[in-house]
Write a structure and sequence with these properties.
One of its GO terms (cellular component) is plasma membrane. Its main location: membrane. This is Glycosyltransferase 2-like domain-containing protein. It comes from Candidatus Methylobacter favarea. GO terms for molecular function: glycosyltransferase activity. The chain is globular. Helix 1 links the parallel strand 1 and strand 2. 42% of the residues lie in helices and 20% in strands. The chain has a single domain, classed as Alpha-Beta Complex (Spore Coat Polysaccharide Biosynthesis Protein SpsA, Chain A). It has 229 residues and is an alpha/beta fold.
Length: 229
C-alpha cells in the first residue's frame, strides 16, 4: 500500500459522503482512514461503506490525525480535510516528488465560491506558504511515514498543529509546493464573513507566535470571535 489518506472528522454527516465519493477511484492504490473525534451524528455510519478504516479517539485534530496515522499502512500519509478535494492525478504527483529529495509537501489551494476576495486569499495563502515553508491543513499536507515519525507526528494541541508539524518537518527536508490546486470549501469564510475571518486568522497566528494559549485560540476560532466573551 503506497498511500494512506487520513481524514479527521467531527459531526460531518452533511459532507462526508461527498468527500469519500470523490476518493473512490483512488482506492486501488490507497487506503482511506476516517479519524473520528467522537461524532454524535451519523458520520461513521455514512462513511463506513466508503472507507477502509474508521478509528476513534478524543476530539482534537492533531490527536485524531495521529491516531489515524498509527493505523495506516501506507508509506505516504496524506492528511485531508473533509471539505477539501484533491486535484486530478494527485497521487502520481506526490509520489514523483517524494521519490526525489523531498520528504513532505503540500498543494496550492483554491477556495470554492465566487467572491473575488476568495481568489485573492487563496493566492496569498499559496505565496505565504512558499515564502515560509509553512502549510495549512487546507493545503493538504503529505509526508513520508519516515519523516512524519522523525518529526514527532502532530503536536496534540487544540490549534496550530499544522504550523508546528511544518516547523519540525522543515528541519528534515524543505517542502515541495505542488502547483496543482486542491479545492477547499469557503463555508467558514462565508459563515463568519470574509473580511472578519481574514483578520481573525491573522490575529490568531500572531497571538500564537507571541505565546497565547492554543486552547483559548481554538475557542476563538470555533466561535469566530477575536476575544473571549
Amino acid at each position: 500500500m503506497n498511500f494512506s489518506i487520513i481524514i479527521p472528522t467531527l459531526n460531518e454527516a452533511s459532507a462526508i459522503q461527498s468527500c469519500l465519493s470523490a476518493l473512490q477511484p483512488l482506492r486501488h492504490n490507497c487506503e482511506i482512514i476516517i479519524a473520528d473525534g467522537g461524532s454524535t451524528d451519523n458520520t461513521a455510519d455514512l462513511a463506513d461503506p466508503l472507507a477502509d478504516k474508521i478509528v476513534t479517539s478524543e476530539q482534537g485534530r492533531g490527536l485524531q490525525m495521529n491516531n489515524g496515522a498509527r493505523h495506516a499502512r501506507g508509506e505516504i500519509l496524506i492528511f485531508l480535510h473533509v471539505d477539501t478535494y484533491l486535484p486530478e492525478n494527485a497521487l502520481p504527483g506526490i509520489q514523483q516528488q517524494l521519490a526525489s529529495n523531498f520528504q513532505w509537501g503540500r498543494f496550492d489551494i483554491q477556495l470554492s465560491g465566487s467572491h473575488f476576495m476568495l481568489k485573492l486569499i487563496a493566492y496569498m495563502m499559496n505565496q505565504r506558504s512558499r515564502l515560509t515553508g509553512i502549510a495549512t491543513g487546507d493545503q493538504v499536507i503529505f509526508v513520508s511515514r519516515q519523516a512524519f515519525a522523525a518529526a514527532g507526528a502532530y503536536p496534540e494541541i487544540p490549534l496550530m498543529e499544522d504550523i508546528e508539524l511544518c516547523q519540525a518537518l522543515k528541519k528534515i527536508s524543505p517542502p515541495v509546493c505542488l502547483k496543482a490546486k486542491v479545492t477547499s470549501s469557503a463555508r467558514r469564510w462565508e459563515q463568519f464573513g470574509i473580511y472578519k475571518t481574514l483578520l481573525l486568522m491573522w490575529s490568531l497566528r500572531w497571538r500564537y507566535f507571541f505565546g497565547a494559549d492554543p486552547q483559548l485560540l481554538a475557542d476563538l476560532y470555533c466561535r469566530g470571535h477575536f476575544w473571549k466573551p
